[in-house]
Amino acid sequence: MLKINDFSAGYGNTQVLFNINLHIKKGDILGIIGPSGSGKSTLLRCLNRINEEDSNFYQNGEILLNGKDLLDINTPLHEIRKTVGLVFQKPCIFPCSIIDNVLFGLKFERNLTELQKRKLTEEILVDVGLFDEVKDRLKSSAQELSVGQQQRLCIARALILKPKILLLDEPTASLDPDTTNNIEQLVQSFAKKITTVFVTHNMEQARRTCNRVLVLNKGRVVQDGTKEQVFKAGTNPLFSSLIAQV
Ligand SMILES: Nc1ncnc2c1ncn2[C@@H]1O[C@H](COP(=O)(O)OP(=O)(O)OP(=O)(O)O)[C@@H](O)[C@H]1O
Ligand SMILES: [Mg+2]
Fold it and tell me: Does the pTM exceed 0.90?
């Protein structure tokens, strides 16, 4: 469903991604691993065109979502953001209430009543394992939440738009083991409906959660395959040294 063809990108004089070719299939949970600075976040950011807001940024190549080029200037940004959700490593909370954060992307949705929106919010908060913790303070500021709660809120805010692709950039980096486990199970539970790209520095997490793994090093794909293939390749000394840096 998502095809990346000969894609390169960088900032100013620094090229960060080199001739990436990748085919992500519907239902994939693709783990991206690689040393710090290898371009993982840059690649995710390109997939929902968030980098374009940086005047220093450049890119070449094609990113086709169901045959349509995401990079085509005629593809409206709001359509991309609705189809491709992005959750950052550090929770990016808006300065408003918990419920308004969840409903942010539906602000201009006129076909839903307030009651329907409330119901949707509750369902999605249950899905991300946050409902019980916030049900009595949905109208309180989201900034009062702990970092782990904020991260689950960000995932809820992305999921409420029913994206076809969810991009998660080290989403559990600031979460405790139980919450991490919840997020991993959540990703697996919606794999039938949502294709996920999951950047992680945690090998075990990639092994547990993903069905495919891509290894990036210095902006190039050095491994791409099922997790069985990629981790088996871990016997290769180059791969092992890369993994040790992740
Ligand atoms: N906005 C920017 N302007 C200039 N250079 C940038 C920008 N964002 C990232 N870079 C550079 O691009 C390279 C890749 O960064 P990126 O954030 O994609 O790496 P990463 O693999 O996600 O690393 P990490 O594991 O530390 O999150 C780095 O050298 C970084 O300094
Ligand atoms: Mg990163």
Answer: yes
